[in-house]
Design goal:
The complex is a heterotrimer of chains A (about 325), B (about 375) and C (about 300).
Chain A lengths: L2 H22 L3 H26 L8 H20 L16 H23 L4 H21 L9 E2 L14 H24 L1 H11 L1 H6 L4 H27 L1 E2 L6 H14 L6 H17 L5 H15 L3 H7 L7
Antiparallel strand pairs in A: 1-2
Helix pairs in contact in A: 1-2, 1-6, 2-6, 2-9, 2-10, 2-11, 3-4, 3-9, 4-9, 6-7, 7-9, 10-11, 10-13, 11-12
Chain B lengths: L2 H13 L9 E7 L6 H18 L4 E7 L4 H13 L5 E3 L4 H13 L3 E4 L5 H4 L7 E3 L6 H12 L4 E7 L2 H13 L3 E8 L7 H10 L3 E4 L4 H13 L5 E4 L5 H7 L7 E4 L8 H14 L5 H19 L5 H10 L10 E2 L5 E13 L2 E14 L10
Parallel strand pairs in B: 1-2, 1-3, 3-4, 4-5, 6-7, 6-8, 8-9, 9-10
Antiparallel strand pairs in B: 10-12, 11-12, 12-13
Helix pairs in contact in B: 2-12, 3-4, 6-7, 9-10, 12-13
Chain C lengths: L2 H32 L6 H19 L2 H22 L9 H23 L15 E3 L5 E3 H23 L1 H11 L1 H6 L4 H24 L9 H15 L4 H27 L4 H26 L10
Antiparallel strand pairs in C: 1-2
Classes of the chains: A mainly alpha (about 325), B alpha/beta (about 375), C mainly alpha (about 300).
Chain lengths: ~325, ~375, ~300
Amino acid sequence: MTRETILNAALGLGLLAFPLWAYFADEPFMITLATRVAILALAGVGLNIALGLGGLVSLGHAAFFGIGGYAMGILASHAQSYSPLMETPFLIEGTKSMPVIWLTAIVASGLAALVIGALSLRTSGVYFIMITLAFGQMLFYFAISWPAYGGEDGLSIYVRNSFPGLNTLDPIQFFLIAYVLLMAALRFSARLAGSPFGLALNAARQTAERVETVGIVPYRLRLTAFVLSGMITGLAGALFADLNRFVSPTMFSWQTSGEIMIFIILGGTARLFGPVAGAALFITLEHVLGGLSEFWHIYLGLLLLVVVLYARGGIIGTLAGQEVKHD
Amino acid sequence: MNKKSFFLAATAAVLSAGMALAEPVKVGMITTLSGGGAGLGIDVRDGFMLAVKQSGNPDIEVVVEDDQRKPDIAVQLADRMIQSDKVDILTGIIWSNLAMAVVPSVTAQGKFYLSPNAGPSALAGKGCHPNYFNVAWQNDNLHEAAGAYANTAGYKNTFILAPNYPAGQDALAGFKRFYEGDLAGEVYTKLGQKDYASEIAQIRASGADSVFFFLPGGMGISFLKQYADSGVDLPVVGPAFSFDQGILQAVGAAALGVKNTSQWNKDIDNPANKAFVEAFQAEYGRLPSLYASQGYDTANLILSAMAKADVKDQDAFRAALEAAEFESVRGDFKFGPNHHPIQDIYVREVLQEGDVFTNKILGVALEDHADAYAGECKM
Amino acid sequence: MSLLLLIEQILNGLQFGVMLFLTAAGLTLVFGVMGLINLAHGSLFMIGAFAAAATAAATGSFLLALAASLAAAAAAGALVEVLVIRRLYSRDHLDQVLATFALILVFSEGTRWVFGSFPLYLNIPPALSGPVTLPGGIEYPVYRLTIIAVGLMIALGLFLLISRTRLGVQIRAGESDREMIAALGIDINRLYTVVFALGAALAGLAGALVGAIQSVQVGMGEPVLILAFVVIVIGGIGSIKGALIGSILVGLTDTLGGVLLPETFKLFMDPASATAVGSALASMLIYILMAVVLVVKPMGLYGARA
């Protein structure tokens, strides 16, 4: 067992233990915070497939996060007002069922990732960063000025969506849903990295020529990774919207893309549990520093600087040491 | 303690005379204290805290948090204040989109929300709630007053513009609801846009006799400076947001003479307002703004209700809020059936006093004005 | 729409483009030479504007204000380069994004701490205020014409600096081969500090010039930053010529799109919804332009390397 595996186990258990403690200590808000960590980490796990495994630095993952959020918002708002989503050519009703919403979010963000990825992957390096940013901004401005679903005001959903057999309004039960999905995504991500697909993707990240000589087209590998990555981030978006019972174009903003990326870098790029460690640290800092001073962004900025300058490889890199990979 | 603050303390003592009744009340204030929009949140907070301080009431406790102008942070803070801090009343939100995110869930959890600034139409009409009170205005109000003023000023062909987002669309709809003349043009700009050369060229070419605009924050500063420099000298009308104390110094002479509509100004002649303006200057060393006045009124409304009822007895407390028996710095103030203000809306003109730019009241644009959505509210 | 108005709008588009060029020039210079993604470029823009506003308030002189914006932004740039940025050249883009994002937080809130939460006053000097009548009868603000002139002068200055001076030779050498320039006995650390400070000074000057007709407030740099990135990516990273062409393209697209799209939609829709749909599409237009350019030319219009 490597130090990283032990660390990962500690993180996974810690994220479970903290809200359980909060549950017995009657601190429901702490459960909400932990749920937030789990959901944002899930978004990070999605981005990490493109970014860590595929070397695709996307500054536009807010697009998928937002699409997931709006999938929830649109379906639930139609269910809330008992008006069908569309009647021709066939009837589509709104729904408040989480599994249906999740599936919609995954499919919708996957399709968006297919289109955005197919166009963006023609570029590379900084141009890729910027073209993904451009697609994110397009959706951001579209969401703001599109009046049907609230524009900049966003959409409020008064009651959290339901999951068969569970009471999702109970913070601890909703946390467990998010936690289980996060663990499933982590397991999927780990298996993906070890699969022939993941190995080829990793090889293509390091030297594209090498995989081309064995007859694999890097473009297809990367597109597949980008779509999978978008799907997971989209699912996280649907959960995030359910956590807040609200969606707004802010989910599409470039700052959101930046924050998801920061979770990964803070935790350790391409580390399996990197997004979990990063999201946990970021949310904790936000929570603790926010109470200290009106100018707490200064301290947050300085702390981030220290991490990036002196703690290379992020939290996990620092604690577990450099190992096998990362260029 | 000088004479004035003694007078204030005395009024506060009168206000809080019925204090024996009151249980401690915990107020959660979620407002914007960092980033570009922080000026508004700071004014609301300072106005609110001034009233709390003046009251000397030990039974009110205020928790203040920064929402960073992000809806998800605001929702999270509301959850925390309700679940961990166990607040009875929430207040403080500046922006409509944040209010839309927070208010429905706060009222659904059985807490009171008193809005010191935002008044989206959805919360005034179908989405109204017995526990939601707006102490400022419904979003359309100031724009409606601008439309009414355009009629009295004899404008027949106005060019109107606003950013392309819900508050901007409401602004133009509100203006048109009262304006009777023709439109020389109707333009939606990009949210956050800072260069208006193209819109100003359209205004010049449109043959308009006047301009109405709603461009809050930095957008309005940019527009006014560029407009003043363009050589177009048509009269301009707008809501108070682009002409408020905090912003006006940054616009400078470009705003001189512009007419704007507001439910408050520092020269409204009543004792409460005089005392407020003086105390605010003494406490913070700057002139109060519209937002500060709204924060101040919100706090005094809460204090007046605390004097009459126990916050744990929701029906009694709600009735006490509805009665709105406090000395509003705006003068007459009462709530309509949807818990939104019925109040006078004034026309102000920007002028210079020494080297400070400020406003003076010209007259009333709409008297005892209620909002257009009250009819849709069923509660 | 009359032809005259159309010409005026084209002029507005050009002018907006030149304004964008002012901010994008420093960004593309720093990127081209050091390969650094600097998200904090917008903060240097803001520092220039605040320094100018404070100086103008204290002295009443616009020229001194411009000088202050150059000095303050260059000083802040040099300081940041020595303390932070220097350690990032060898890192990947991810670390650069995180570190410069952190700098935005520090700069924004630091500025708010020093200057308060309310926008500052900065206006154009009386000598440049008001409109002039151009041939053909267009009334156009003198100050905007001045901005066009300053922008074109800076573009020319940068071309000359890079093609004719010793520093330019070093910059070009640094872009193509870092080891070589060190082998030639040039102090690469000093060169990088100078280039970064130069890029920062350009951003600061742009902040002051643009701040005079817009608003000087915390957070003014971020929208500008995104637009500047759009511009340099369209033009091709590192290319001054690309930045100029990219700026003008973006300026024209944004201005003319905002004017013409709603008019076009009015041909087959009712005016209110045409305005709404047209404006919505117009606000997405420059990002659509950027995506189209990159899909067709993945390295931008004049890009040499990724």
